């Protein structure tokens, strides 16, 4: 992996990272917003401490551990990636409540247009902020967006110490099973 200097990462601030998306996906994973490493590389969940890629594999969504640079391969498994807020920041706490609300509206429009079977928001706090649902918990939600069901997953950031890779993989596998059932 390329080594980035602090200046390289800072230069990636506010950059947009293209979605990995197609119509009719089985699961569209939705991060909070791109981090600076993601923006610098152009690959989602690129920070080395982020557990998204290992958890995706451990949960059975992918047949092998993928690297962020292989993100486009997700489409062949019926999977995609987007974000609640498009702009890159060093930390999610740099986002305003208004950005989350606006992101929720834009995300809803994207989901209605793309029609994934499931929208999987990775991060209960982001989901609550984007959709104004203060009581939401990890797991399937009552809310639907068009015909798409919604599931909230634990945030795979290394900062989320409440969840181990193994316990996250169990929750992701619950979604995988539900998605396979239709």
From TrEMBL:
Keyword Disulfide bond tagged: no
Matches recorded under InterPro entries: MUG/TDG (IPR015637), Uracil-DNA_glycosylase-like (IPR005122), Uracil-DNA_glycosylase-like_sf (IPR036895)
Residue span(s) of domain Uracil-DNA glycosylase-like: 18-181
Positions in coiled-coil regions: none
Extent of the signal sequence: none
Xref: PANTHER family: G/T AND G/U MISMATCH-SPECIFIC DNA GLYCOSYLASE, G_T MISMATCH-SPECIFIC THYMINE DNA GLYCOSYLASE
NCBIfam families to which the protein is assigned, alphabetical: PRK10201.1
Name listed for the protein in its UniProt record: G/U mismatch-specific DNA glycosylase
Origin species: Streptomyces dengpaensis
């Amino acid at each position: 992996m390329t080594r980035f200097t602090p200046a390289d990462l800072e230069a990636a601030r506010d950059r947009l990272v293209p979605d990995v998306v197609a119509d009719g996906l089985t699961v569209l994973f939705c991060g909070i917003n791109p981090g600076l490493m993601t923006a610098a590389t152009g690959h989602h969940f690129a920070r080395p401490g982020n557990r998204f890629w290992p958890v995706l594999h451990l949960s059975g969504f992918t047949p092998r551990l993928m690297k962020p640079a292989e993100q486009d391969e997700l489409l062949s498994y019926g999977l995609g990636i987007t974000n609640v807020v498009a702009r890159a920041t060093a930390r999610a706490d740099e986002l305003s409540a208004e950005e989350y609300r606006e992101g929720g509206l834009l995300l809803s429009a994207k989901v209605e247009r793309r029609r994934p079977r499931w929208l999987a928001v990775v991060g209960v706090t982001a989901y609550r902020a984007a959709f104004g649902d203060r009581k939401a918990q990890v797991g399937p939600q009552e809310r639907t967006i068009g015909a798409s069901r919604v599931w909230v997953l634990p945030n795979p950031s290394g900062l989320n110490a409440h969840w181990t890779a193994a316990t996250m993989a169990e929750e992701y596998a619950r979604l995988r099973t539900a998605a396979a059932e239709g």
